[in-house]
Amino acid sequence: MEACSDLEVDINGEETIFLNKQIICAYSGTFRKLIGKSTCSNGNFKVIFNDFPGGAESFELVSRFCYRSSEFTVMPSNVVLLHCAAKFLEVTKVLEQTKKCMEEIRYWAWPELLLGLKQCQEVETSSEADSLAGRLMDALVEKLCLTVEVSPSSAASACSPDSSLFRFSCDSKSTESFKNSSVRLTWWFDEVLVLSPGLVETFLKLMVSRKFDNLVISRFLFYYQKVKFCSVASNEKRKILETIIDTLYVLDRSCVPYKSLFGVLRLALGLNISKSCMYKLELMIGHQLDQATLDNLLVPSPSKSSHLYYVNLVLRFANAFLDGERRGSQLKKVSSLIDQYIAEVAADPCLKPSKFMSLLTLIPDSARESHEEIYRAIDMYLEAHTGLTNGEKLNLIRTLSYEKLSGKSRAHISRNAKFQAIETPDEQQQQQQKQLILRVDKVEISGDNEKLKEHIEGIQWRVMELERACLKMQNQMEVIKKRSKNSSRGSNRSLPKLCS
Q1: CA angle, 366 as apex, 358 and 410 as ends, to 5°?
Q2: Is the keyword Magnesium assigned to this protein (predicted)?
């Protein structure tokens, strides 16, 4: 540069550069305005920039152009920094050349596009960076989509990091090509990881809009999460996970590994993601609930809750499943799964009767071929919750269907002390019921007369049901009596006296 340096420029506190005032002002409108307003009398000027886009590197590029414009070449490797810096300094000659270079963006090589996007991240303070990033990203995704559309077997050679242009070639080793097809479709995974979460989100939206292979996008999302989570803070993890969920939600469900969704769920519960993202994740899991296992559903309850397991989450999963159109086989699988879950959580002493009741009535009764699991679950729940009221016990027992219990369970329930412990106010009726059951137990039944045995067991069950219905009616009558007494007390004051 020239020996006469009468202009001192401080670039974002990173570096101080000395320039010739006359040369730089000949190109930069910004410097002409600044120096024209200056009241400095000795001829030396100092300019301080605190938010110069791209920092000292981009400023040096523009200053080199001003000194040696005839020798300076604008190219994909420097066009982003030059464009943003020239826009800031109002160097019109540089802007003309950068715009001309950007017109050829569709013909840039993959590494040049990726480098340009990385530079957009460095000059994010510039308003120009967003528009440049959008054009670069569009070209990047177009290039990637073209390689896959041409041939999966030629993806690596057609758009590899080392190639400057598309070159389509045939692989003579077809067997080797087939083995490496997965690698050829995913070679770009690590390269895209250098982009910021915001640019990755834009990249993924473009991929989806271009109808890129959903299975490959799904694989990239899980790979992206796995790699990035090792080195970022919680806030960035939350942002990454929300981007992953939003993208998975719009993909073909068959392309999203169901087991992987539960891995995302565990992370989401720990990061307190947004409600909208959590809702989308629950819907994705719920819609495919027939693929889940019991271990998948045994999610520990949030730290503030006293329950052992996150029952509300499973209720939401099941409701999402039931809201869709389901085949009979799918519904039976989910019914069996929920029954297993109910039996697992029944022993939790902190599980409220209302929540347990919600689980029992969650699946339509028509989907259950047997109530064996339900009976065992209620039996365990009554054992773990000895302080239940008669009404609460009746509500739980009423969910059982006698016809869907095995003969062994029917015989067992008639002798089950926990099911017989419901007391009725009418002692005489209770005594009659006990005597009836006692008489039935004493009847000798031959091994050949199974129908009579089942009939007697049915009588036992109906007696218990009558007892429960009677208790319910008596409780309702007591409530009605109390209400009538209260209303009569209040109404006596307002009624007029009868004439004699």
Answers
A1: 80
A2: no
Helices (H), 123-257: 127-150, 155-158, 174-179, 181-186, 189-192, 197-209, 214-228, 234-250
Phi/psi for 164 (5° steps) reads: -95, -20
Average pLDDT, the chain: 80
pLDDT digits 0-9 by tens, 457-472 = 666 666 666 666 666 6
* CATH 3.30.710.10 residue window(s) in the chain: 1-103
Report the candidate in 377, 307, 383 with the shortest Cα–Cα distance to residue 348. Answer: 307
Q: In 10 A of CB 97, how many CB atoms?
A: 20
Give 308-353 pLDDT, tens digit per residue.
999 999 999 999 999 877 778 899 999 999 999 999 999 999 999 9
Q: What are phi and psi of 11, to 5 degrees?
A: -100, 100
- pLDDT tens, 259-306? 999 999 999 998 989 999 999 999 999 999 999 999 999 999 887 777
Q: Which amino acid is at 480?
A: I
How crowded is residue 265: how many other Cβ atoms within 10 Å of its Cβ? 21
Structural domain 1-103, CATH architecture: 2-Layer Sandwich (3.30)
* pLDDT band of 444, cuts 50, 70, 90: very low
Cβ contact 1:67 at 8 Å: yes
Measured between its terminal Cα atoms, the distance across the chain in Å is 124
Residue written as token pair 């300094």: 89
Q: Are 453 and 431 in contact (CB under 8 A)?
A: no
